[in-house]
Amino acid sequence: MFNDKFTYGPVRKTEKDTLMSIISQSLHIPEERIQMTFSGIGLENFRCMKDGKRIVAGLGIYPMAQWFGGTKVPMAGITHVGVAPEYRGKGAAKALLVNLLRELHERQYPISGLYPATLRLYRSVGYGRSGSRISYELHTDVIDVADRSLDMVPAEQGDEQAIFDAFAAQARQSAGLLERHPVIWRRRLEQKGQLIHKYLIKCGNRIEGYVLFAQSGQRMQEPMLILDYCVLTRNAGRRLLTFFADHRTMIPRVEWAGGPFDPLVYLLPEQKVKITGKSDWMTRIIHVKTALETRGYASGLQGELHLCITDEILPWNNGCFILRLQNGKLQVEPGGEGRINLGIRELAALYTGFQTPYELRLTGLFEAPEEDMGLAAMIFAGPRPWMSEIY
Prior knowledge:
The structure is a single chain. The protein is α+β, with helices and mostly antiparallel strands. It has helices at 16-27, 31-41, 92-106, 119-124, 160-172, 182-189, 234-245, 263-266, 288-294, 344-352, 357-363, 370-379, and strands at 6-10, 46-51, 54-68, 71-83, 111-114, 128-139, 151-154, 178-179, 196-203, 206-214, 224-231, 253-258, 274-285, 303-310, 319-326, 329-334, 340-343, 366-367. The strands form two sheets. Strands 1, 2, 3, 4, 5, 6, 7, 8, 9, 10, 11, 12 and 13 form a 13-stranded mixed beta sheet that branches. It has a five-stranded mixed beta sheet with strand order 16-15-14-17-18. The radius of gyration is 22 Å and the shape is globular. It starts with 5 loop residues before the first strand and ends in a 12-residue tail after the last helix. The mean pLDDT is 96. This is GCN5-related N-acetyltransferase.
């Protein structure tokens, strides 16, 4: 039970500096960076928790969408969750998140997502691990690809829409990629005090990919930092690797973030890429029916699943549901036999394709007859979910 003194609500202009200070101290990030988020998503997308009249915790909300099954699903991306140090362990953070989830349900968001500083807190309110961001490093002198069949063309000011379109094409055939908020795009395309190099990968007039990268320019032999890239064809990936290799005399390595089956990793003939880090992001199913019906599914597949879902925080998700899939469209109705028992966190991992039913049975609350396991695996099959950005 939460402290009755805690109250949840929007942030007033006069309270902005106080919340910024709490977030900065809590997350160990400069207020200048937090100010950029305030400016980008607006004060109206920040929420706070108060003890009486005093702000003790807060967070920001990115109104976005996320791609699953070739379809965009509206998603509230949560950022800058901060709690005043003297209020940690008093329930302020959990109360903030529970109230947020109730608000997001009223605003008809099917799902929410975030990068956790700690898993325990977010698991306690129903977020489940549901996708990955993997950091890669590749030394340029070991790239044994030489393919210049496509053109690397410096992007001009009017080429931003072409970059957006290429990314959307990639997102449709992937899982977990964002329909990026303008703030996130801005961080890719421009950074204060940093020159961003932008190239399109073209076959004639057709764009098959792009790359955005930065070089410090301060010292020789520093890495090339890939801020964003997209390849839509095998040739585009090979051309980009060749482009990296052509920098070998001055740049020792290339660093980027991607997914578990990153094309630059698998287009190399040998295992030359090093994984330097991995972070899992989390998803919260806010409304079971809307989330499941909005997501895309493989056409030509049909079947019926009977779920029994446990959600200790959001009561409208509790109970039994019938899932009927036909011609790529899923319909959800209350009722049924409840043959598959699972928690709301496990549903998030199944929904995004992060874990199969067989994997969930080993690691979480997921029980089902053997004859239902295969159908559930097929319905939610697809690419492993990932994204390259942290928001």
